[in-house]
């Protein structure tokens, strides 16, 4: 029986979830399990959900990309608001934003060419009660120049072993980082944006944590390059808190994007 | 034994709390009980906490004002960061922002002359996973003119009985509203700011809910005046959700403010 492939983007507030994927421990709720459940209720069939990749416990997404296959016939002309239907079965912390009929070759995980993550830091003397779930907080004024120069050493094709947390079977730790920039988003909010062809376990949080460590110790930013070259996780700083991290965007080949038909 | 009066401002994300004050039901946590506990740990004595007023379950505050008395001697010159000490005993959803030694006549509840509340509405086709705890959400484009004209009928000294929710012993329902304005804060975020000498139970949420009802039904904004004059709660709309409401500022007589010494 012929199936239709559906691609969709979803935003979520990762606070309180065990991450995108189910964990071995019981009693923890994953974002993926709730979306899968919503899909099965709306489509009334067993659904297998695929995403661009996992996010850790407490990490957020503005635009996670997923796909699944359904036996149901979908007609874009009928203007059935599949996002609305899914959102009515999801908690307010998970929002399906847009959906498309995707070509058969599209695969949310395998087709992804690169990803952009963003990290937010509230930088002021007092923390914020309202932003505690959404940003990291650093009390002392940050020197953006040290941060910016340090992460420039990571742009390129390198072995990022120093920035991979333990507990993963992955052995090929070479990745390409295309861009890694710091910017004041507001006078007291700093944002770090990084784009790469793939990221190791906690790689972004380890990079942010290391940049903050170098800044705090007022070290020469070239320390980042020494840590990268050492290929030794113990040289790098501790991971920055999950609350500040967002999966911002996932990129796919243009020809696949063009074949997607919005629902 | 002589005591010192301490005034402080506190911000909180009200989500998940039963409100400012303890409720009769067990198993619910109030914001005030956590602050009182933190004060008792930091000051190592029994503390009674007073605030400008209560906020309902789920309602937030940018600047709630409180006071308490302590037997401890406080010396502003010593630069002891009392806010930092308190925050280290509080969850990240409650942040003490500033503290002062207050004159003996200061009372957070009794001295308050007026208060400003603010209400946020996200107005766009899709909800936000990240703002769900912080704003109400309205799908259809809102007509700010209807909202603005309707709430202008509430500026003045009136009996606001129509906008008082049940379950309060208060019988004097006359209050003065000084200002009540709607404004686009961002292209898709509407904010309502209201200042008055006091507010009845759920009065702000009932006013917002009624304005939204008039807008949705495309009624003449003068309907707000008819509802006010009716002194009948059933004429007004349902209360807007607590998640959108923030206690923004509490005002005290200038001579009391001037006598406060920052800690």
UniProtKB/TrEMBL annotation, chains A, B:
What are the binding positions for substrate in this chain? 117
**Biological processes annotated in GO:** tRNA pseudouridine synthesis
- Keyword terms of this UniProt record: Isomerase, tRNA processing
Q: What is annotated as the active site?
A: 56 (nucleophile)
For this protein, the Enzyme Commission number is 5.4.99.12
The reaction(s) annotated as catalysed by this protein in its Swiss-Prot or TrEMBL entry are: uridine(38/39/40) in tRNA = pseudouridine(38/39/40) in tRNA
**Sorted alphabetically, which Pfam families does this protein's record hold?**
PseudoU_synth_1
Q: What class of enzyme is it?
A: isomerase
Q: Which residues form a coiled coil?
A: none
Q: Which GO terms describe its molecular function?
A: RNA binding; tRNA pseudouridine(38-40) synthase activity
The protein's job, in short, is: Formation of pseudouridine at positions 38, 39 and 40 in the anticodon stem and loop of transfer RNAs.
**Description of how the protein assembles with itself and partners:** Homodimer.
Spell out the protein name for this chain.
Answer: tRNA pseudouridine synthase A
Organism annotation: Bdellovibrio bacteriovorus
């Amino acid at each position: 029986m012929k199936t239709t492939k559906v691609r969709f983007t979803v935003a979520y507030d990762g606070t309180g979830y065990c991450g995108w994927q189910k964990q071995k421990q019981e009693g923890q709720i994953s974002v993926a399990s709730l979306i899968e459940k919503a899909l099965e209720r709306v489509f009334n069939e067993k659904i297998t959900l695929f995403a661009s990749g996992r996010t850790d416990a407490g990490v957020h997404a503005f635009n996670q990309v997923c796909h699944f296959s359904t036996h149901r016939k979908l007609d874009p002309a009928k203007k059935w608001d599949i996002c609305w239907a899914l959102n009515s079965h999801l908690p307010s912390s998970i929002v399906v934003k847009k959906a498309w009929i995707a070509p058969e070759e599209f695969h949310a995980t395998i087709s992804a060419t690169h990803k952009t993550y963003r990290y937010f830091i509230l930088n002021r003397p007092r923390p914020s009660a309202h932003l505690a779930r959404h940003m990291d907080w650093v009390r002392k004024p940050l020197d953006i120049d040290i941060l910016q120069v340090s992460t420039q050493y990571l742009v390129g094709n390198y072995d990022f072993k120093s920035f991979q947390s333990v507990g993963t079977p992955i052995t090929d730790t070479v990745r390409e980082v295309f861009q890694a920039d710091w910017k004041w988003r507001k006078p007291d909010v700093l944002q770090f944006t990084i784009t790469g062809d793939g990221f190791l376990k906690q790689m972004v949080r380890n990079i942010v944590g290391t940049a903050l460590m170098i800044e705090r110790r007022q070290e020469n930013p070239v320390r980042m390059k020494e840590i990268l070259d050492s290929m030794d996780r113990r040289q790098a700083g501790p991971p920055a808190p999950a609350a500040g991290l967002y999966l911002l965007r996932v990129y796919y080949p243009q020809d696949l994007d063009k074949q997607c038909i919005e629902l």
